[in-house]
Amino acid sequence: MNNEKFMRLAINKAKQGIKKGQTPFGACIVKNVNIISCTHNVVWKNNDITAHAEINAIRTACRKLKGIDLSECTIYSTCEPCPMCFTACHWAKIDKIIFGARIKDAQKFGFNECAISNKKMKQSGKSPIEIIGDFLREENISLFKLWFGQKNKKAY
Amino acid sequence: MNNEKFMRLAINKAKQGIKKGQTPFGACIVKNVNIISCTHNVVWKNNDITAHAEINAIRTACRKLKGIDLSECTIYSTCEPCPMCFTACHWAKIDKIIFGARIKDAQKFGFNECAISNKKMKQSGKSPIEIIGDFLREENISLFKLWFGQKNKKAY
Q1: Residue numbers of A annotated as active site
Q2: How far apart, in whole angstroms, are the C-alpha atoms of residue B77 and residue B54?
Q3: Which residues fall within 8 angstroms of residue B133, CB to CB, at 6 or more apart?
């Protein structure tokens, strides 16, 4: 139940981003049932290629928790974190990633992914992070469809 | 000649960071012999686990070039970019990474790396980015030694 609630916060945040001309990605960080941060991608708004939803959520969480250690946190991401964001979660010592759509879905919608799955990243990098994928998968994929219907959509 | 010059700018920037209590990493982005950005790691200073030298250099370069496409740019990094930074370079369409020390060196000095080499990231993620490693290797490793001799050093 809680997982659905927090994922839907990320989904709603992604929808807010889409309305503002951003790409269809949202992320929410939760620690012991407390919402620490919830952000969408702002690559276009901030003119910053690193400003993915997860990176933004992690940066905000560090500020909020006054530290770089996000142990005991779970990140809910509407799409499987790219290897940049996966590794940021590793550095931050986030316990668990719960994601919706897959990197391959983002690729199909035109994003120039460095397409390595979280499972492979975890194995190759010997990361202790727990991963749950395909969570509310169809709802999360529908974000890409919503975005794709926007007039001024731009992938990268 | 130019490669040595630009790598030494990154090395000097890393040294400035060490003096200020930061970790021993520097990065310099160059486009057509013009220096676009040169930064050191500010994870501790900014209380931001994502504030690696390369991420900072890419963010600064996006601002300076007024765009998220860093094609034709080379990044000089004192240490092999971690998978977060490698993937940021991929997203930014940076042409070439030239690095000094290796991720495994950083690991030896206590950094909790998600230890996947740039070579493996490139292969697995099918990234077109060109990679030159072990450049001025000993000079770059000496940054870790300099940092390790500091009283208040802190890895993460």
Answers
A1: 54
A2: 7
A3: B80, B99, B102, B118, B119
Within 1-40 of B, beta carbons closer than 8 Å to A belong to none
Residue of A nearest to B67 (CA): A47
Classify strands B96-101 and A73-79 as parallel, antiparallel or unpaired.
unpaired
Task: Please name the residue of chain B whose CA is at the shortest distance from the CA of residue A85.
Answer: B84
DSSP state of A65: H
DSSP per-residue letters across B37-105: EEEE--HHHHT-TT--HHHHHHHHHHHHHTSS--TTEEEEEEEPPPHHHHHHHHHTT-SEEEEEE-HHH
A83 touches chain B (CB under 8 A): yes
Token digits for A137? Answer: 């998968």
CB contact under 8 A, A48 and B68: yes
Nearest by CB: A49 against B43, B44, B68: B68
Q: Does B64 touch chain A (CB under 8 A)?
A: no
ipTM for the whole complex: 0.98
For residue A148 the two structure tokens come to 């794709």
Candidates A83, A125, A156; nearest CB to B68 = A156
Provide block-wise average pLDDT over 10 residues at a time, chain B (156 residues): 95 98 98 97 98 98 98 98 98 98 98 98 98 98 98 95
- Phi/psi for B145 (5° steps) reads -65, -40
Cα angle B29-B31-B34, degrees, rounded to a multiple of 5 = 90
User: Residues A27-77: pLDDT tens digits?
Assistant: 999 999 999 999 999 999 999 999 999 999 999 999 999 999 999 999 999
Q: A59 CB near a chain B CB, below 8 Å?
A: yes
CA angle B41, B45, B48 (to 5 degrees): 75
